From TrEMBL, chain A:
One of its GO terms (molecular function) is metal ion binding. Belongs to the complex I 20 kDa subunit family. The keyword Transcription does not apply. The lineage of its organism: Bacteria, Bacillati, Bacillota, Clostridia, Lachnospirales. Residues 18-128 form the NADH:ubiquinone oxidoreductase-like 20kDa subunit domain. InterPro entries: Complex_I_20kDa-like, NADH_UbQ_OxRdtase-like_20kDa. The keyword Ribonucleoprotein does not apply. Keywords: 4Fe-4S, Iron, Iron-sulfur, Metal-binding. SUPFAM superfamilies: HydA/Nqo6-like. Its cofactor is [4Fe-4S] cluster. Pfam families: Oxidored_q6. It comes from Muricomes intestini. This is Ech hydrogenase subunit C.
From TrEMBL, chain B:
PANTHER family: FORMATE HYDROGENLYASE SUBUNIT 5-RELATED (PTHR43485:SF1), HYDROGENASE-4 COMPONENT G (PTHR43485). One of its GO terms (molecular function) is quinone binding. Fe cation binds at residues 68, 356. Keywords: Iron, Magnesium, Metal-binding, Nickel, Oxidoreductase. Ni(2+) binds at residues 65, 68, 353. The keyword Oxidoreductase applies. Residues 120-283, 286-359 form the NADH-quinone oxidoreductase subunit D domain. Its cofactor is Fe cation; Ni(2+). This is Ech hydrogenase subunit E. Mg(2+) binds at residues 46, 320.
């Protein structure tokens, strides 16, 4: 079954991003980049989502929120860390309220580099996550 | 009188690109009170002055917010320059103004798109963001970055704009002007858009003054307050009038922002006409000592930067007061007695930038 790969729904959450990556995620949905041509739909509901896009590093207050979002998503699911902050904390790694990258809390499947990540690389990251979804789907079936 | 219910709004919500939590106390469909809870984006950026020296901090200050990144960088650089008594070359001052006004166009187009999305006008959202990409292309061609471009430095700017590129900027913004008239006429004349914005979120002039609203929020209530009139950067050489409206509703705020887009196009053209020749950066020596306040007009309103330096590489204190922070009391005021269905539009009407506010 490859429904997920044909049309993955993405959920975007801003953990502690500076907005730069967030608006690039939105920009990749708009006409010039148009991620919808790969069947990708942006949703606001975690229960409909296949891929979780997280921008920015995590802090004490956003950890429970992203954990809850992840738990609410149906299996199989993939997590994409967008931007350098989500990968390692980036320039804010030394801040007192920054715990580090998203992988401190959730299992991250794809890391997208950049500050701010460019729409092209975000689209690339989403497509990589689609392949991972497919594998996870097969593993689920075989269980 | 109906029963009171509390509806939690956020931190994750389709209309919010950024997390903020509001507890909406409802009586039937009317919002009686909105209780905000923030802290989801707090990083503790101001404290980084202990770990990054004042030159490196330019990059940190640009990452306060990805939308008005250039203006944050410029505001910080202007504060440090004033402390150190650095004379910034005239050409750099004009180049800063060009980039700042381009940022204003991109920020207001972004806001128009998100607002269209909030009231469900998807195609309008796509059209404004299509136009916005032209501005981002200009950024990329002149600086190398789309959103965060690190072109502003203490003492001036890092990159010059070639005469050919200046011609291109003029032709792009002139062509954009025509397309913008088409798109913005939908915002201003379409009956469905009017239905969602006219008379919604009224803020009187007295209330706006009392709550300390800034930027388009204040201007739409008839307060003629624009930091650019103070004449920082190259604004002292340019001719412009702050754009205001009287009604104080969501529609008036949209009018002000649309007016500011066309004003920014005019200011860019004026800058390019008056652009002097010369150096773009002054070499700096030594470390800053002293303190300074800078006030900058961002797309969302007045931002205030405070820098205190002690003569070493590391600053004592850096403080920003961002426009969204100043507008939150006004937001809570207009949320009172509104319909639950209007809450997304009202939150967007202040053009919230949570990452600026919490840093």
């Amino acid at each position: 079954m490859s429904f997920n790969k044909k049309s993955p729904w993405i959920l975007h959450y801003d953990a502690t991003s500076c907005n730069g990556c967030d608006i690039e995620v939105l920009a990749s949905l708009t006409p010039l980049y148009d991620v919808e041509r790969f069947g990708v739909v942006n949703t606001g509901d975690p229960r409909h989502a296949d891929i979780l896009l997280i921008t920015g590093s995590v802090n004490g207050q956003s950890i429970p929120v992203i954990k809850q979002l992840y738990e609410q998503m149906p299996d199989p699911k993939a997590v994409v860390a967008v931007g350098i902050c989500a990968t390692s904390g980036g320039i804010f790694a030394d801040c007192y309220n920054v715990e580090g990258g998203v992988d401190k809390v959730l299992p991250v499947d794809v890391y997208v580099p950049g500050c701010a990540a460019r729409p092209q690389s975000i689209i690339d990251g989403i497509l990589k996550a689609c392949d991972i979804l497919e594998e996870k789907q097969k593993a689920l079936k075989g269980r | 009188m109906g029963k009171r219910t509390v509806v939690p709004f956020g931190p994750q919500h389709p209309v919010l690109p950024e997390p903020i939590h509001l507890d909406l106390v409802l009586e039937d469909e009317k919002v009686i009170e909105a209780i905000p809870q923030i802290g989801y984006v707090h990083r503790g950026l101001e404290k980084l002055v202990d770990k990054k020296d004042f030159k490196q901090f330019t990059y940190v200050s640009e990452r306060i917010c990805g939308i008005c990144s250039f203006m944050h960088g410029a505001g910080y650089c202007m504060s440090v320059e004033s402390i150190m008594g650095i004379e910034v070359p005239e050409r750099a001052v004009f180049l800063r103004t060009i980039w700042a006004e381009l940022s204003r166009i991109h920020s207001h187009l972004l806001w128009l798109g998100l607002t269209a999305d909030a009231f469900g006008f998807e195609s309008l959202f796509m059209h404004t963001w299509r136009l916005r990409e032209q501005v981002l292309d200009l950024f990329e061609q002149t600086t190398g970055g789309r959103l965060i471009f690190s072109v502003c430095d203490i003492g001036g700017v890092r990159k010059d704009i070639t005469p050919e590129m200046l011609d291109k900027i003029v032709s792009v913004v002139t062509n954009m002007d025509k397309e913008l008239r088409d798109v913005t006429s939908v915002f201003l004349n379409d009956s469905t858009v009017k239905h969602r914005t006219v008379g919604i979120g009224l803020l009187s002039k007295e209330k706006a003054l009392e709550l300390g609203a800034v930027g388009p929020m204040a201007k739409a209530s008839g307060i003629r307050r624009d930091m650019r009139t103070q004449g920082y950067c190259a604004y002292k050489y340019l001719e412009f009038e702050p754009i205001t409206a009287e009604e104080g509703d969501s529609y008036a705020r949209m009018q002000v922002r649309i007016g500011e887009i066309f004003q920014a196009i005019d200011l860019i053209k004026q800058c390019i006409e008056k652009l002097p020749e010369g150096d773009i950066i002054t070499k700096i020596k030594g470390n800053p000592k002293g303190e300074h306040f800078t006030r900058v007009e961002q797309p969302r309103g007045e931002a205030l930067y405070y820098v205190k330096a002690n003569g070493t590489k590391f600053l004592d204190r850096f403080r920003v007061r961002t426009p969204t922070f100043a507008n939150v009391p006004a937001l809570l005021e207009i949320l009172k007695d509104c319909d639950l269905a209007d809450v997304p539009i009202l939150i967007l009407t202040i053009d919230p930038c949570i990452s600026c506010t919490e840093r």
